[in-house]
Write a structure and sequence with these properties.
Blueprint lengths: L2 H8 L3 H9 L18 H15 L4 H10 L5 H31 L10 H9 L6 H16 L4 H13 L3 H10 L12 H11 L2 H4 L12 H6 L4 H25 L1
């Protein structure tokens, strides 16, 4: 195989292959008499391994360490792992296409393209002019689009909360903390955070991954979207929910 062929086979660019050669991550293959590189199946397997490791977030230095540890593995073992990875990708693509098919059949909404389950959740919520409620809708839409919203089961579990008559009043109290005079020491913060935590159904807690919610990653981005006093409320809610999740998992062990 030539460089363009191996790049197309693995799903990377020829430029990426040359870069991996340059930094010593991918050994230079033998060259034909005409000077062109001649890649083998083993080269393709190694390149696919590099692609997979970088896709899951490893730095190139970390990839180098992993490859060094795997140097003694049999080719059939590596091929089996790559086959499993391809099966995972096929499954994810199939699931995304199913969601896309449902979106194409559903009428457009003002929130943009949403999964049918999230669209149903938002439609069940009472109409409100609360800016805080609108922000929550934006955050859910972002999670939904990124594939991290938790799916139909989570949206179904959130429905009782969305339909609860007292939620509107909680949003109004959160809106009141958006003013310039509201700081992180505002006496309204603690009781509002406690009531918001208490309003979250246990069914929702069961779907929260261990260690979440957390003020890192998406949680950090979410927090930065609020003014100081509201941010403090949301931060306290995240911390208290994480404690509830741990307590729930502890009781179930």
């Amino acid at each position: 195989m030539r460089i363009g062929e191996i790049a197309a086979l693995v799903g990377v660019t020829s430029r990426a292959v040359r870069h991996y050669h340059h930094i010593g991550l991918l050994p230079e293959p033998a060259r034909r008499g005409n000077g062109y590189r001649a890649y083998t199946v083993r080269d393709a397997v190694l390149l696919a391994r590099i692609r997979r490791l970088t896709e899951i977030g490893l730095s190139l230095d970390e990839v180098r360490d992993v490859l060094a540890d795997d140097a003694g593995r049999e080719l059939v073992e590596v091929l089996g792992e790559l086959d499993a990875d391809l099966a995972r990708q096929e499954r994810e693509i199939r699931e995304r296409r199913e969601v896309l098919a449902a979106l194409l059949e559903a009428p457009p909404t003002s929130d943009g393209p949403l999964s049918p389950a999230l669209a149903a959740l938002l439609e069940s919520a009472p109409a409100t002019g609360s800016p805080a409620a609108a922000k929550d809708r934006e955050h859910l839409a972002l999670l939904d689009a990124a594939g991290g919203g938790g799916g139909a089961e989570l949206y179904a579990a959130l429905r009782p909360l969305a339909e609860a008559p007292g939620v509107g009043a909680l949003y109004e109290r959160l809106d009141e903390l958006a003013g310039a005079g509201a700081g992180v020491d505002d006496p309204r913060i603690a009781p509002l955070a406690a009531e918001l935590v208490a309003a979250v159904p246990d069914e929702v807690l069961a779907m929260i991954p261990d260690g979440e919610p957390s003020p890192t990653g998406f949680g950090r981005v979410l927090l930065e979207d609020y003014p100081p006093a509201q941010r403090e409320v949301v931060r306290r809610v995240m911390e208290a929910l994480a404690v509830r999740v741990r307590a729930t998992r502890g009781r179930s062990v």
